[in-house]
C-alpha cells in the first residue's frame, strides 16, 4: 500500500510559477517510479511527467517540456514538480501517482500506475 498526498496548487497568473509536492508513505519510496498527470475541465487525463526510482531518468509531455521540472528526494519520500512559465492551458487538477511495477523505467500511461493522490487544483489566469 502507498499513500500519496499532493500540495502546492493554487491560482497564478500566466507566466508565473508553482511548485507541486507529493508526499508518499507506505512502501519503500526508492523502490518505484513516480509520475504526474493532469485533467483539465472537460478533458481527459493526460500525462505530464515521470521519473525513475533515483530520478536519474525523467520523461515529460511535449506540452510541458522546457517549462516543468520533476525531481524526487528519496530521503524525504517526496517528488516535486516545478512549473514555470505557466499558461492558461495548464489549468487542471494535478495528480501524482506511484508505479510499483517499475523502478528503472517510468511509464507515461496512467493505467499502469497503481496508486494515486487526491489531486491538487492549478488555475492559471490570462
Protein architecture, described:
With 126 residues, the protein is mostly beta strands. Helix content is 0%, strand content 50%. The strands form 2 sheets. Strands 2, 4, 5, 6, 9, 10 and 11 form a 7-stranded mixed β-sheet that branches. A hairpin with a 4-residue loop joins strand 7 and strand 8.
List keywords for this structure.
seven-stranded mixed β-sheet; mainly beta; four-stranded antiparallel β-sheet
Overall 3D form: globular
Quote the beta fraction.
over 45%
Query: Percentage of helical residues?
Result: under 10%
- Report the uncertain regions: none
Strand segment tally: 11
What is the CA-atom radius of gyration, in angstroms? 13 Å
- Helix-strand topology string: EEEEEEEEEEE
Q: Give the helix tally.
A: 0
Specify the structural class.
Answer: mainly beta
Give the terminus-to-terminus CA distance. 40 Å
Mean pLDDT score, rounded? 97
What is this entry, summarized?
Helix content is 0%, strand content 50%. By secondary structure, the chain is mainly β.
Amino acid at each position: 500500500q502507498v499513500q500519496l498526498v499532493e500540495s502546492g496548487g493554487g491560482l497564478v497568473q500566466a507566466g508565473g510559477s508553482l511548485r507541486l509536492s507529493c508526499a508518499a508513505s507506505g512502501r519503500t519510496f526508492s523502490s518505484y517510479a513516480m509520475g504526474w498527470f493532469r485533467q483539465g475541465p472537460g478533458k481527459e487525463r493526460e500525462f505530464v511527467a515521470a521519473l525513475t526510482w533515483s530520478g536519474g531518468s525523467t520523461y515529460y509531455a511535449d506540452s510541458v517540456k522546457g517549462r516543468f521540472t520533476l525531481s524526487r528526494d528519496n530521503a524525504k519520500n517526496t517528488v516535486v514538480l516545478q512549473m514555470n512559465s505557466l499558461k492558461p492551458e495548464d489549468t487542471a487538477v494535478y495528480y501524482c501517482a506511484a508505479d510499483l511495477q517499475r523502478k528503472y523505467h517510468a511509464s507515461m500511461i496512467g493505467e499502469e500506475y497503481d496508486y494515486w493522490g487526491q489531486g491538487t487544483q492549478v488555475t492559471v489566469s490570462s
